[in-house]
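> @MW can you paste both from yesterday?
MW: sure, first one:
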Amino acid sequence: MSIRKAAEFMLSIQTFQSEQDLARHFGVSKSKAAQWMTSICNDSRYTVIVMDHGDNVKIKVEAIEGRGRSIESIANDAILFKRPKMLVV
């Protein structure tokens, strides 16, 4: 699993995500998800909104390298239908 895939997931769903949400979705520890969130927030390639409520920090990815849509969404529009699961890597 990579930070890029986590960011793509967050961009595709367009909602605020906490470290617990990411850990649950990807099946990793909360500390690993927290590392991903920190890396996403600190990297200039990602445009994020941070919602900080004490211990509960949530982020929303607005864009990746200026792109406001996920790669999957762009690919689905390009071929005019959703890609079959066996073709998705």
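MW: second:
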Amino acid sequence: MALTLFEYVTSNNDGVMLMARDEPLLVEALIQKDAIDGHFDLREASTHDRQTVVLAHLETFGRIAAGKYERGELNYHDLAGLRVAHIRVSLFDIKASGLLRHVGAQRPEA
């Protein structure tokens, strides 16, 4: 089966988590907090601010994560009997993709 589109799952102090499937695998992608803050020049951003930014660019972040998945840039772990592929999207990954233009220090619209 082909990798499905990434969807938003949750936000926490580590960043924003997206999830896709490639049966029988679950594929989770963590968009790291520092990557979001660094690329979008966010200062003192809240979890909600980061979530808003990622949701506004969900398709693009999904493409970045899918690229890392296809290149095998991931780790695996088991969770409740399921095999999970874990991807960490860094600031380097965002910049190297060339998919997101740099946005200056503006708070995301709520």
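> thanks! The chain is about 35% helix and 30% strand.
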